[in-house]
Amino acid sequence: MTRLWDSKLFSLAHWSRRLRSPVLWQGLAGIVTFFAVWQIARWLGWMAIIPSPIELAEGIPEEIAQTGYWQNWIDSSRRVFVGFGIAAISAIVIGVLMGMSTRLRAAIFPLFEVMRPVPPLAWLPLAILFWPSSEMTMAFLTFIGAFFPILLNVLAGIDKVDRRYVQAALSLGSSRGALFRRILVPGALPSLFTGLAIAIGITWEVVIAAEMASGTNGLGYMTWDSYMTHSMIGIVLGMLSIGLAGMACSWMMRWVGQIATPWQK
Amino acid sequence: MTKSSATSGGHCVVDSVGKVYSSSGNDLEIVLKDCSFEVPAGSLTVLLGPSGCGKSTMVKLIAGYETPTLGQVRLDGVPVNGPNADRIVVFQETALFPWMTLQENVAYGPVQAGEAKAAAEREAGALLRTVGLAGFEHRYPTQISGGMQRRAEVARALITRPKLMLLDEPFRGLDHMSRGLMQEYYLKLFDEHRMTTLFVTSEIDEAIFLADRLVVLSYKPTVVKTVIDVDLPRPRNFQMLTSATYGRIKEQALDLLYNEALKAFDQTPAAA
């Protein structure tokens, strides 16, 4: 097992290699070009309604300094992680049970197939009526958004475990418990992490929409509230913050995935 | 691994075994038809047949992954009924668990048999060194070459001291040079352990070079065409491939195989 301290994150050599890699600089060049084009467009008088990058650079620190900005991060993150966490645990448990028992799978799968295409936000009216607080409503929607992608990937992961591994394990005298813990679980792990990475992205989409619709705080609410108060800088800052939050979560997921499956390069 | 552990038993009898698959529709595909042969205890018996004749199916039946439609497989008189640690298969493509290091892979069998993890890993490390994988104990299977994977997998099978080793075209896909080296290496291991082995291949030279007995299969419907005793002395080396005995056996086997291969060539459907 790779330990935390041995991992790339803490390796000086790794980061210095990163800094010298052209990919990093190409990426930065792309971002810089994007803002440059935006700025030039504003100078030319186009897109007058949108603040220019320079205006943003001036205005954003002030917005961030306001009380409540960081609290919005915390509020949104909390909803994401509560919904995502409950979804992950329940989807893994149900997915594993369905993966192990064909009967259970046959019983549950059609039901889920009907529920799955319903977009998380279509649950909003029902959720508002059902849950006593808007906090619970929002956590529930993120749960719905994360649950199905994780479940499907757990199932796919279990199905994809090569039969030869199961056969070899049986020949080597595996008990049922060992077959599960040492063959099926690690075999399904890469697929599980694919599901988790997809799910965390969806949870951010859902939580933002839910906050706009029924929240009183959070990054989504902040963006919407900025619109109501005609704060262009606030709108763009909200969007940037959401983007960064989603990106950070995806990175984190990928990093945890790499540590959990060290055999995958 | 205790050296020269003259493994007790391992006498395998394949008794009038037939296997029928029901493919799409009501078509029945007869893969094996009334096959009978024996793998004497302590022998290296090679199952030789053209590609697609059902050799791998035979391995699955003996391993217990599948049940014969007709007939019976017996190991030391006991009918085979499902997979068991007394029969180990080394597969065509590697079946090393990708999520375990080589050492963990090799130690897996002993740990499942109840051995303490530390002791099992020590034993696994020692065995890996004897198959020339010293220094690779903590690598994952995807980090080593195909030839190394084969050796690690043979080690994983050897360590459990099965009564019967089943090797299903284990060196297929290796380049010519590695294949020759693996064959020599494998023979050395066999001479040390004398574990009853059924080695499956479609390569005639490989078959004769390794075998005590050759069981030659026909192409569909697959039956045992003939059994040839290979009376080349052990230990063997590649010089023997030019001996008169070798030439005689090869001619005999080639005659049979050529006709079967021709049949296979004429009626091969999409499946290889």
From TrEMBL, chain A:
Entry keyword annotation includes Nucleus: no
Task: Note the CDD domains from the entry.
Answer: TM_PBP2
Entry keywords, A to Z: Cell membrane, Membrane, Transmembrane, Transmembrane helix, Transport
Is the keyword Membrane assigned to this protein? Answer: yes
Family (UniProt): Belongs to the binding-protein-dependent transport system permease family.
PANTHER family according to UniProt: ABC TRANSPORTER PERMEASE PROTEIN MJ0413-RELATED (PTHR30151:SF0), ALKANE SULFONATE ABC TRANSPORTER-RELATED, MEMBRANE SUBUNIT (PTHR30151)
Give the protein name, as stated in the record. NitT/TauT family transport system permease protein
Organism equals: Aminobacter ciceronei
From TrEMBL, chain B:
Which keywords does this chain's UniProt record carry? ATP-binding, Nucleotide-binding, Transport
Family assignment? Belongs to the ABC transporter superfamily.
MF GO annotations? ATP binding
Q: Which SUPFAM superfamilies match?
A: P-loop containing nucleoside triphosphate hydrolases
Q: Does the keyword Transport apply?
A: yes
**This protein is called what?**
NitT/TauT family transport system ATP-binding protein
Pfam families membership: ABC_tran
Q: Where is the ABC transporter domain?
A: 12-244
